[in-house]
Write a structure and sequence with these properties.
Helix content: 40-55%
CATH topology: Spore Coat Polysaccharide Biosynthesis Protein SpsA, Chain A
Largest sheet: 7 strands, mixed
Mean pLDDT: 95
Structural class: alpha/beta
Distance between the termini: 54 Å
Number of domains: 1
Order of helices and strands: EHEHEHEHEEHEHHHH
Low-confidence stretches: none
Shape: globular
CATH superfamily: Spore Coat Polysaccharide Biosynthesis Protein SpsA, Chain A
Number of helices: 9
CATH class: Alpha Beta
Strand content: 15-25%
Number of strands: 7
Length: 224
């Protein structure tokens, strides 16, 4: 396939990762969200088949992050429905000439350029997706054209996206790739991430901030 455009929706960092409250402070959750977005942007930026990136959201730091990564910033209308905001962004990018659109979340710190490349190279037409391991959500949705199906995000959305494509007679492909499988939302996800042996900004920050050591001490005290 020719180059694809990536669309990454981003929640305001101050309201991110509320399921980690009690494990991390609000400030730490915000910083975690920022570091994970950096990892996603680096993976996309290192993928030759990605021709451009758009960040969708109103987080104040996105202007600087988009400038630093060469991404396009698409402000999200205040109070807009998440699915509608994605649909409007996809339609806007299609109007700009984008033929292949990859939608992915901002919380995939283990994502690599190799994962993105494998997904893009296996895609021909219609939709291709990668499910979330935990709840069957959709952690990658590749659409040709960008408005091929409506966005149906939420638990088990991978199944709903596949059904929507098949109902329209659109080719649909289900692919499992490690870098797309685990988004970081729960305490178990954080503990899992701490056991990974990879180089990424998120892990480096968890270590340098002292959070890794703190969580390990807490886990040891709980187990004893």
């Amino acid at each position: 396939m020719t180059g694809a455009w990536a669309l990454v929706p981003v929640k305001p960092f101050a309201r991110a990762k509320t399921r980690l409250d009690g494990l991390l402070t609000r400030a730490e959750c915000a910083q975690l969200a920022a570091q994970m977005l950096l990892d996603v942007l680096r993976a996309l930026g290192a993928t030759p088949l990605i021709s451009g990136i758009s960040l969708l959201g109103n987080e104040p730091q996105l202007a600087a992050l988009s400038a630093g990564s060469g991404a396009q910033l698409l402000p999200e209308p205040p109070g807009d429905d998440y699915r509608k905001a994605l649909g409007d962004a996809a339609a806007r990018l299609a109007a700009q000439g984008v033929r292949h659109l990859l939608v992915l979340p901002a919380d995939l710190p283990t994502l690599s350029a190799a994962d993105v490349t494998r997904l893009l190279e296996s895609h021909t037409d219609g939709i291709s997706l990668c499910p979330a391991a935990r709840d069957g959500g959709t952690n990658a949705l590749l659409l040709s054209p960008p408005t091929a199906i409506p966005f149906l995000y939420g638990p088990d959305s991978a199944k709903r996206h596949l059904e929507a494509a098949r109902a329209r007679g659109i080719p649909a492909r289900h692919t499992e790739l490690a870098g797309f499988a685990r988004d970081i939302d729960t305490p178990d996800d954080v503990h899992w991430l701490l056991e990974q042996r990879i180089a990424c900004a998120t892990l480096a920050w968890l270590k340098s901030s002292g959070i890794r050591d703190r969580l390990r001490r807490q886990q040891k005290a709980t187990d004893s």
